[in-house]
């Protein structure tokens, strides 16, 4: 039906509840939307088929998030 590649706002609205946020300051809305999109794209590039599962995987694991973003050196430095 709807492909989230063509409707990235739909994914941000449904999974991240973007419309419920109260920030409305200057460029903040665009900056946070860009950061969310980058995070979703990082999950897709990592091969996650379910964005919800991907978010749950890295939500409370800083090491997994750093590895996802390609910062392996930072993970090694934490050990």
Brief overview, please?
With 79 residues, the chain is mainly alpha-helical.
Report on the structure:
The chain is mainly α and 79 residues long. The chain is built from five helices and no strands. The protein has helices at residues 8-15, 28-45, 51-58, 62-68, 72-78. The longest helix is centred in the middle third of the chain and has 18 residues, at 28-45. It is globular and about 40 Å long.
Notable traits:
0% strand; mainly alpha; globular; single chain; 5 helices; 79 residues
Shape, please? globular
The total count of helices amounts to 5
Q: Could you tell me the mean pLDDT?
A: 77
Helix-residue proportion:
55-70%
**Which class do the helix and strand fractions yield?**
mainly alpha
Strand content: under 5%
Low-confidence stretches: none
Question: In angstroms, what separates the terminal alpha carbons?
Answer: 45 Å
Helix-strand string: HHHHH
Can you count the beta strands?
A: 0
């Amino acid at each position: 039906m709807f492909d989230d590649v063509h409707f990235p706002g739909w994914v941000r609205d449904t999974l991240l509840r973007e419309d419920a946020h109260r920030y409305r300051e200057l460029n903040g809305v665009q900056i946070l939307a860009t950061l969310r999109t980058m995070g979703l794209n990082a999950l897709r590039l990592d091969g996650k088929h379910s964005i919800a599962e991907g978010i749950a995987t890295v939500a409370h694991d800083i090491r997994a998030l750093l590895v996802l973003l390609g910062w392996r050196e930072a993970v090694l430095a934490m050990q």
